[in-house]
Amino acid sequence: MSRRQRRSIDIFNLSFLDVVSCGFGAIILLLVIVKISEPRVIEQLAVDLTGLVQRLQAELYRLQGEAVAVNQDLRSGEEQLSEKRQNLTRLRSDLSYVRGQFTAGKRELDAQLRIEVQLETARQSLSEELRQLLGDNYRRSDNVIGGIPVDSDYIIFIIDTSGSMQKGAWPRVKQKLREVLAVYPQVKGIQVMNDMGDYLFSQYKGRWIKDTPARRKAILKRLSSWQPFSNSSPVEGIEAAIKRFYAKDKRISLYVFGDDFARGSIQQVVTTVDRLNRADASGQRRVRIHALGFPVLFSHGGIPVNSVRFAALMRKLAEDNNGSFVGLGK
Prior knowledge:
By secondary structure, this protein is α/β, with parallel strands linked by helices. It folds into two domains: 16-138; 143-327, Rossmann fold, CATH 3.40.50.410. The chain contains seven helices and seven strands, in the order αβββααβααβαβαβ. The protein has helices at residues 14-134, 163-168, 170-183, 213-223, 235-245, 266-276, 305-320, and strands at 144-145, 148-149, 154-159, 189-194, 252-258, 288-293, 325-327. The strands form two sheets. It has a five-stranded parallel beta sheet with strand order 4-3-5-6-7, with helices on one face. A two-stranded antiparallel ribbon has the order 1-2. The termini are far apart. This is Secreted protein, containing von Willebrand factor (VWF) type A domain. Keywords: Coiled coil, Membrane, Transmembrane, Transmembrane helix.
């Protein structure tokens, strides 16, 4: 049996070359396509990068501007802080000075108070020794001036500020107040109220005005323009003065200035004052009540009934309350 002859294989045949040619053709086509589109991509990329750079530069400028503003604010804040620190240092220095002044003033006040207490104790001791030497019935000859006792350490003026007094007697009111003050060269306290209980100096409401020459001048000056409401009845002022200022350790005199008593009962006023200004076991009242009657209504002719009522009321109050009544002439 004849052996079959084996076919020889040729790797470079036509089919293989076709395949290889197609592959190279495809590669060349791809290269051509890429070369054509590459400039467009690069151009677009360049455009995009240029816009990004511009945006980044704009953002950089904005941030630089904000940094400048922040630095300015920071410098301003530092300047304000430095100024406030200087002010604080100055205030601390002022506070230290005021504290020093307060401490020195307090020491001086304490010293004055101790001296006053010592003087008062010495005065009381001297008064007791004089009483023992001279007897209980001894009275100083200068305790009465013009019929009015002037032995008080505190005086209160209760002045009728009605229209008739303002128009017809005010210069004389100031004159008589000055004269009464002159009778007391030095007292421990002064107060001025009207017949309704209103104070001449509201800042001294309920407190004594310390007696000094300057205070006396201020009282007379303020009196010139003082025009509070008045009902021409002294009972409210007397009641307010006794209730607020009476104290067991104080000798007080009230001076009532007025011209008429237009309304109310004389007996009712006397009873009210008697209840407020009650007497102790020795018959001494809490305060003395003096009165000055101004003849304002007499200038109208005849005998004015309200002026007569005022004179009768104040004469009775002065008699019952260890005081004096003085009716002034025209």
